[in-house]
Amino acid sequence: MSQQQLQTMLALQDAINTVVNEHWRAQNFAWYRAIWVESAELLDHYGWKWWKKQQPEMEQVKLELVDIWHFGLSLELQQGAPEDVARKMQEQLASSTLQAGDFRENLEAFTLKTLASKQFDLPGFAQLLADCEMSLDELYRRYVGKNVLNRFRQDNGYKDGSYQKTWDGREDNEHLAEIVQSLDTAAENFSNQLYEALKNRYPGS
Predict the structure, then answer these.
(1) Out of 35, 119, 158, 202, which could bridge 153 as a Cys pair, Cβ 3.0 to 4.6 Å?
(2) Is 177 domain-assigned?
(3) What is the DSSP string of 63-78?
(4) How many domains does the chain have?
(5) What is the pLDDT of residues 140-169, one digit of tens each?
(6) Phi, psi of 166, rounded to the nearest 5 degrees
(7) Cα 13–33–132 angle (5° rounding)?
(8) Which of 171, 149, 170, 139 has the alpha carbon at shortest distance from 63?
(9) Please, is 72 exposed, middle or buried when counting C-beta atoms within 10 Å of its C-beta (0-12, 13-18, 19+)?
(10) Are residues 45 and 84 in the same domain?
(11) At what angle do helices 58-77 and 122-131 cross, to 10 degrees?
């Protein structure tokens, strides 16, 4: 993952948080607690009950990892300027040589470290990605996609109920997935291209 991609995601996360609360950094929200709760939901999707047959719901697992990434980015943003944070995160990721391991145990270790430090355990999170065979590029695509779709929904009447979640016989997230495949995710303006492509498809735009 490039430093530019990290900076893009940090900027998008800062924008979302600012919509919720203009002075979000000063509020010291318990992002670590959100990570802890999401981790429990993640484990449910992966499966942990020995008394019944369970298969990991990998699509849901990946969606939960993206949600955790939102909170992790928020914690990282409280550490300093986005450029400095992106550089530090890239160095941490570059120094991680990971092999897939026991997902449940690694998730528990990640959660314990999060609760103990009240910070984002980036190496631990990278290990979870490796366990799920989810690349950093896939994380980037999924994160930016969800961010852009959420913003698009808000801009088109999601709050007052006028937004159409389904058009041309498909849900908006299906349109999103198709559009992402047609774009260059390495482009600096990837998120803007994605937003414009959704806008061009949406009825009445």
Answers:
(1) 158
(2) yes
(3) HHHHHHHHHHHHHHHT
(4) 2
(5) 999 999 889 888 988 888 878 899 999 889
(6) -120, 130
(7) 70
(8) 139
(9) buried
(10) yes
(11) 170
Could you give the 3-state DSSP secondary structure of residue 166?
Answer: strand
CA angle 120, 125, 126 (to 5 degrees): 130
Structure-token match 């299906």, residue found: 174
| Maximum separation of any 2 CA atoms in the chain, in Å | 51
Q: Across 63-67, 68-72, 183-187, 201-205, which has the greatest mean pLDDT?
A: 68-72
DSSP state of 50: T
Token representation of residue 115: 């609760």
Query: Phi, psi at residue 171, to the nearest 5°?
Result: -75, 155
Contacts 24+ apart (CB under 8 A), 102-105: 102/131, 103/46, 103/128, 103/131, 103/132, 104/43, 104/46, 104/48
* Rounded distance between C-alpha atoms, residue 38 and residue 44, angstroms: 10
**Same domain? 76 vs 105:** yes
Return the number of other C-beta atoms located less than 10 Å from residue 186's C-beta: 11
Residue 80 gets which letter from DSSP?
S
Q: Extract the runs of DSSP E, i.e. beta strands, from 51-147.
A: none
Q: For residue 128, give the nearest of 52, 67, 54, 53 by alpha carbon.
A: 67
Q: State the pLDDT at residue 205.
A: 66
Same domain, 36 and 103: yes
Taking only the tens place, the pLDDT of each residue in 101-120 is 899 999 999 999 999 999 99
Q: Are residues 12 and 88 in the same domain?
A: yes
